[in-house]
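Exam revision sheet. Question 4 asks you to relate a sequence to its structure. Input first:
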Amino acid sequence: MTVEKTKTRKVVIVGTGFVGASYAYALLNQGIGSDLVLIDLDKERAEGEARDLNHGMPFRSPMKIRAGDYDECKDADMVVITAGANQKPGETRLDLATKNAKIMKGIVTQIMKNDFKGIILVATNPVDVLTHVAYDVSGLPKERVIGSGTILDTARFRYLLSEYYQIDSRNVHAYIIGEHGDSELPVWSHVQIGGVPLKKYGCMDDVAEDPDMKQIFENVRDAAYHIIERKGASYYGIGLGLARLTKAILYDENSIITVSTLFEGEYGIENVYLGIPAVVNENGVREMIELDLNKKELNELHASAKILREMTEKVLE
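Answer key, structure tokens:
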């Protein structure tokens, strides 16, 4: 589906906490977009972030940055949602999903009241479930409601592999797919370094059983926990990931990025948002990349989908 382009390269961010502010800073620092609006329930916070960012303008390309409200969504190319509650001690992931689903419904309703015709990008956790909520409430086509998915998990995976093998991370090609969370999985069968399969770099023939590779994946999966233990929250990595995704959309790059998108029979999976490599351009998700997964990987992806489908059904009730 072709979306009428506004040609403004305008981005609205809903939520100016750590993630939203880090994302806004990444956009400014990389010169992505031309018009940036910050929305937050705490209007003074949004105003403060806008002022702080504007004071860096002499060091970067010109960009209009301001605090605003939902009426700014009318002519925006993208609305990026980072707002939501954090998980409290003793709270389950379902508790968090239920709480944030209510917040998400309210935000998306406000966005759509203003005749929004662009792309919604969701980063609030649990991101796969909440992206499905945004899709359900917005009424937009599935390709225009995208979650940040496993973009950060994939980046962590590539980085840790690059550290292990002492290779530039930009030359490591690997994916984490499925849930952005505990049931995610590494696609070992498709890991390559400079086009060379990983098992040729001295791993066991069954890469997934190599102790060092197992440790790398565990460090990827548990990275957020490790960061939160040390500094309270994780936000720089996802801020940069969201900026990368925004650039692919605003500049019509047709880039392959691991985003959360709606499955409609791909891999034998129906009606659930999951992280998967997809081609992303100005219209959102152009198409999903269907990797030739081995049996173990496919089973793990189906298990991840089952967990997310059950959680999504509960919050959509």
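Marking note for examiners. The chain has two domains: 10-147, 151-316.
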